[in-house]
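USER:
Before I trust my own judgement here, I would like a peer's view. Write it directly below this note and I will take it from there.

ASSISTANT:
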Amino acid sequence: MGRTFTESARRAQIVQGAIEALAEVGYAKTSFAKIAKQAGLSSTGMISYHFAGKDDLMREVAGEVMRVSQAYMLPRIEQAEGFRGRLRAYIESNIELLAVYPKHLAALLEVLPNMRGDDPSWAGYHQSLRSVMDVLQQRMAQAQALGEFREFDTWVMITAVRGAIDAVVTRWHTEPDLDVARLATELADLFDRATRREP
């Protein structure tokens, strides 16, 4: 049986409260009391009613961040022109998330290291990331076949792209005033030069 609109809205309210708490005080200090305060709830009982425990709620936080990220990035990537444009949009939209959804990304960076290896959300997150990288590899190979990209090992290139994005995200976590827009442009320019076929 599905959740009612009211139940879904309450869960979303709690998840948003958890995101704000995680971004503000970190994973260790994010208690149900802190989440209830952030979510504007009178007691922690409402959280316990909707979630089986902290792990259950943290899984939902990770899922929500991934949903928000995908909803922001996909339209930008799909609207870009050509393979070079889509690669640029992928890099820039990944890093733009830091400015558009700073609390969401900060929360995810708190949650992921605290998920156990056997946690289905941990496996789901990495499977989702792996799927995205597989698609990007396929697109790069198509761009090479059509002559838009030069010849290179697509796995090496997409691993370098992902590593560079992750490095920016990690640095931003300790330097929140980082000029992410400038870094997004620099990385996009760097990988455009690294992948394009020269005339």
The chain has two domains: 1-51, 58-195.
